[in-house]
Amino acid sequence: MKSVTGTYTRYWNFENHTTLTLESDNTFSFKAQEGLVFFQQSGTWTIDKNKLVLNSPDDPSELSKSIIVDKKTVDRSDVILTVKDEEDNLPGAPIYVFTQGQKKDFSTDENGQLNFKSEKWDSIQVSYVGLKSLTIKAGPENMYDIRLTREEPIGIKFKNERWTFRGRKLIDPRFNENKRKNTYRKNSR
């Protein structure tokens, strides 16, 4: 069997499409739109008797943590935070700045950014409804690019789910009754 790593796409119509990406480290990401519902999942994959076997963790939040994508020191006297979920800016995200036991409340602007006067601070907590909060400990940096992830990912879980290979195609067992709906084609790289 040729390398199975890569991205496979199922496109049924403009409201129903999915991508499954198999990484070389045996992890996968699954992103789907079914009507007005968008969801994603990640986990591990293996090959067993010419079948792709997908498993996602029992607690999907294990794999997703809010993170600082980039932090640096720039020649400015204020602190700059940019807060996003996976792709979009998060306007109105609550920001709490803790200084010697005192808490100051801020929120991001319409671009998901906050600039505040650089004072001596101990930690910053960034939060948003439905997303995991993140706490930043004070350091020399004054510019932070932050990504918050879902508290409880929406979607499905994979438990030893077995998909079939057919050449450069994968067959999703969830849609066995409709071949057109369940076929994923491998994208060219």
In short:
This protein is mainly beta.
Layout of helices and strands, plus pairs?
Layout: E1 6-13, E2 16-22, E3 27-34, E4 37-48, E5 51-55, E6 67-72, E7 78-84, E8 94-99, E9 102-107, E10 113-117, E11 123-128, E12 131-137, E13 143-147, E14 161-166, E15 169-171, H1 179-182, E16 183-186
Parallel strand pairs: 7-13
Antiparallel strand pairs: 1-2, 1-16, 2-3, 3-4, 4-5, 5-14, 6-13, 7-10, 8-9, 8-11, 11-12, 14-15, 15-16
Instruction: Compute the number of strand runs.
Output: 16
Please tell me the CATH architecture of the largest domain by its name.
Beta Barrel
Sum up the overall morphology in one term: elongated
The unreliable regions are: none
What is the gyration radius calculated from CA atoms? 21 Å
Largest sheet: 8 strands, antiparallel, barrel
Mean pLDDT: 85
Q: What sequence of helices (H) and strands (E) makes up the elements?
A: EEEEEEEEEEEEEEEHE
CATH level-3 fold name of the largest domain? Lipocalin
Task: Kindly state the percentage of residues in helix.
Answer: under 10%
CATH uppermost class of the largest domain? Mainly Beta
Mind explaining what this structure looks like?
The chain is mostly beta strands and 189 residues long. It folds into 2 domains: 89 residues, Lipocalin; 81 residues, Immunoglobulin-like (Sandwich). It contains 1 helix and 16 strands. Strands 1-2-3-4-5-14-15-16 form an 8-stranded antiparallel barrel.
